[in-house]
Design a protein that fits this description.
The structure is a single chain. By secondary structure, the chain is mainly alpha-helical. Among the domains are: about 10-70, no CATH class; about 90-180 and about 190-215 and about 225-250, no CATH class; about 450-545, Rossmann fold, CATH 3.40.50.11980. Helix content is about 55%, strand content about 5%. It is built from 20 helices and 7 strands. Helix 3 runs antiparallel to helix 4, helix 6 (about 255-265) packs antiparallel against helix 7 and helix 6 (about 255-265) runs parallel beside helix 8. InterPro entries: PPR_rpt (IPR002885), PROP1-like_PPR_dom (IPR033443), PRORP_C (IPR031595), TPR-like_helical_dom_sf (IPR011990). Keywords: Hydrolase, Magnesium, Metal-binding, Nuclease, Repeat, tRNA processing, Zinc.
């Protein structure tokens, strides 16, 4: 394009040409930029051309008006910034919408997974209720294939079903009585509570366990089928347990107890006991049912020392054996001929069970009729020491060990309402708390009182009691004074105190416990006679409980 030397070029997006030259200017469009030419001549014509349009002629005023509309470089820059901000804002909106859509998709997926998890839980609970192991394993396999994450409850139900089938106490579509029996090696798993069933339904009519492990089969083929089912339960049970550990699902006492039961089915007492020890490591509290598999396995295997190790572990963790556990310990002790162990367990039965079942009674009779029982015992002993030991133990037993040798006389008899044996005519002793039980009871009462009393009032009472005690009897003076009427009568307290003194061997005043307001009197009741109060105080027999202290202690 021909231009004068004074031509000023400005690049724009479209091509424009302005000329005041007498010679017509030729215009050529450029593909990528626009050119503006200014020539200070007197020619009034102005040519405007576009890349795709013909040249148009306008007057000078139009050119001026048009030139005013051309944006300055600063305004172009400001526009670019606005466009950039709008672009960023649009990108943020698009990104936000994208995230929202992703969240909606995730929520839908989570809802589907939650729905599957809920259905799985309900299905497994129903299988537990019916004792349907195959159905439960089918639901489990389906959930794993669909990527459903199982929780603690689902794993616990599966382990319970597998362990029950492995030890032979799973009865599909049947219910058990829930009582504890002694004629089966797994009686420890048959409790009288709903904890044996790890399902949400607590209806007592829907028990899963039966109380017998015996399987009545009419053919060896049936026995083989039963063994195959137990092996399947063991294999799948340990598979479920491994998955639970691999997925780091939190363990609970019920799950570990089920694993211990599977170990019992394999006659592995060490593994069953290890499950109990794991509970302590995980901060779980073992229960009586937790010890049953290990104790039962050791007793059945004749491992007497390990069996009593389990019992010691129970006592250390505040779990006390009941008759089924003691019956197993007694049986294994008799088989091993351990007379000292038999003596220990018999006293355990005496102190904790009192009245034994027929099965345990038959076992005790078998012991006293055995040759081993006739050979153990002292030939000589000090009768005085025996009587002192019996008195110190609360009466009825001495705890020194077997006395005498020779065959025992075993007879069946009954005891009258007066406590007299109808066979030998001996009066049964009234058994009191032994010294250890008395001390533990006193400590427990003191700890409760101290925790509830204010200003160490009970500790003050303990010091007072150490100074003025001991007492042979205690009188709750408030109840005596109010007995039979609404009005407090101090004369009744005095009458009971005097009568009590006459009956006590030492003729000493009994301990009189009365709130200090009763002694001074209030608006309704007159104070107790000063002479009577002084008499009790001089004898060191009256303790006035302060405000905030419970006189029932």
């Amino acid at each position: 394009m021909a231009t004068s030397p004074l031509t000023l070029q400005l690049q724009l997006q479209r091509s424009l040409s302005f000329s005041h030259s007498l010679i017509p200017n030729l215009y050529h469009s450029f593909p990528s930029f626009t050119t503006l030419n200014f020539n200070p001549r007197k020619q009034p014509t102005i040519q405007c051309s576009s890349r795709n349009s013909p040249v148009e002629t306008t007057n000078r005023n139009s050119v001026r008006n048009f030139s005013k509309k051309i944006p300055s470089p600063s305004s172009v820059s400001h526009t670019d910034k606005s466009v950039s901000l709008e672009s960023k804002s649009l990108n943020r909106v698009i990104e936000k919408k994208k995230i929202e859509n992703e969240n909606v998709v995730e929520k839908k997926k989570k809802k589907i997974k939650d729905s599957r998890r809920v259905k799985l839980r309900l299905s497994l609970d129903l299988c537990s209720k019916r004792g349907d192991l195959n159905g439960a394993l089918s639901f489990y396999d389906s959930a794993i294939s669909q990527g459903v994450k199982l929780g603690q409850h689902q794993y616990t139900v599966l382990l319970y079903l597998c362990s029950s089938a492995a030890i032979g106490v799973l009865r599909p579509a049947k219910s058990g009585s829930g009582t504890r029996t002694l004629n089966t090696q797994v009686s420890s798993v048959n409790r009288n509570d709903d904890d044996n069933r790890f399902c949400s339904d607590s209806d007592d009519d829907n028990r899963v366990l039966d109380n017998s492990v015996s399987v009545s089969c009419s053919s060896s083929e049936k026995l083989d089928e039963n063994d195959e089912f137990k092996n399947l339960a063991l294999r799948r049970g340990f598979e479920v347990y491994e998955n639970m550990c691999m997925n780091k699902v939190e363990m609970n006492e019920a799950a570990l107890t089920s694993v211990a039961r599977m170990a019992m089915a394999m006659c592995d007492g060490d593994m069953a006991f290890e499950m109990v020890k794991q509970m302590k490591i995980l901060g779980l509290s073992p229960r009586l049912r937790s010890y049953g598999p290990a104790l039962s396995t050791y007793c059945n295997n004749g491992e007497i020392d390990k069996a009593f190790d389990v019992e010691n572990h129970m006592l250390e963790h505040g779990v006390y054996p009941e008759e089924p556990e003691l019956e197993r310990l007694l049986r294994v002790s008799i088989r091993a001929g351990k007379s000292d162990r038999v003596y220990y367990v018999l006293h355990k039965l005496r102190s904790s069970v009192r009245k034994v079942s027929n099965t345990t009674a038959d076992l005790i009779v078998d012991w006293f009729r055995s040759k081993t029982a006739s050979k153990v015992g002292r030939k000589k002993w000090d009768k005085r020491l025996i009587m002192e030991a019996m008195e110190n133990n609360g009466g009825g037993w001495h705890g020194i060990g077997w006395l005498g040798k020779g065959r025992w006389q075993v007879l069946q008899t009954s005891v009258g309402n007066d406590g007299m044996c109808k066979c030998c005519g001996v009066q049964l002793a009234t058994i009191d708390l032994d010294p250890v039980e008395t001390e533990n009871f006193a400590k427990s009462v003191a700890s409760i009182a101290i925790s509830k009393e204010k200003n160490s009032n009970f500790q003050t009472f303990q010091k007072w009691l150490d100074y003025y005690g001991p007492f042979e009897a205690v009188i709750d003076a408030a109840n005596v004074g109010l007995f039979g009427q609404w009005k407090f009568m101090p004369s009744k307290i005095n009458a009971v105190v005097n009568e009590m003194r006459l009956k006590l061997p030492s003729k000493k005043f009994p301990l009189i416990v009365l709130h200090h307001r009763r002694i001074r009197g209030d608006k309704r009741d007159a104070p107790i006679s000063k002479a009577v109060v002084d008499r009790w105080n001089n004898a060191g027999a009256l303790y006035a409980t302060p405000t905030g202290s419970n006189d029932d202690w």
